[in-house]
Amino acid sequence: QFAEFNKTNVAQATKFAALSHVNAEKLVNINVAATRAAIDQAVEGAQAASTVKDVQDLLALRTKLAEAQVQQAMGYSRHLYEIATEAQAGYSAFAEEVFAAYTKGMASWVDQASKSAPAGSESAINAFKSTIAATTAAFDQFQKAGKQVVSLADANVRRAAATASKSVKGRKAA
Questions:
Q1: Does the model's pTM come out above 0.85?
Q2: pLDDT tier at 170 (50, 70, 90 boundaries)?
Q3: What is residue 173's predicted lDDT score, i.e. its pLDDT?
């Protein structure tokens, strides 16, 4: 049983490390893309500034560049939020899987222990089984509550992003 327990822990640690690596790679990629876009935007802005002929052109260019920066920042934030949401879902699924394996292993251990337990220890074994059942039920409730909080937060973030996007578009029209 000890060897099986160690195998399970190594497999879980490996899966967690792989999940973390994938998420870190996504963050690096978004930051490299954002840096590339910022450099491209700076070059474009410098080229456009070199063609400015009067104050009106300068003001129009400033507005255009500011709008582009706001759009870029909103896109970056939205993409970053999507990565964070995916990562959270992956880590939650991993935690559920680990807890389910732990609960299953613990239940199996209790069943085996109860078979070789001395006479009169049934009440202690039943209490232990009840504790495991209560822990599992509590975990399920926390999990459901956590999912509701994440869903509510997601809806609020998406609503705020839509409002900000409409605000920027409204300024362009004005």
A1: no
A2: low
A3: 54
Write down the pLDDT at residue 7. Answer: 86
Distance between CA atoms of residues 15 and 90, nearest Å: 11
Owner of token pair 């002929």: 53
Q: What is the 3-state secondary structure (H, E, C) of the chain?
A: CHHHHHHHHHHHHHHHHHHHHHHHHHHHHHHHHHHHHHHHHHHHHHHHHCCCCCHHHHHHHHHHHHHHHHHHHHHHHHHHHHHHHHHHHHHHHHHHHHHHHHHHHHHHHHHHHHHCCCCCCHHHHHHHHHHHHHHHHHHHHHHHHHHHHHHHHHHHHHHHHHHHHHHHHHHHHC
The first and second tokens of residue 79, run together, are 């993409």
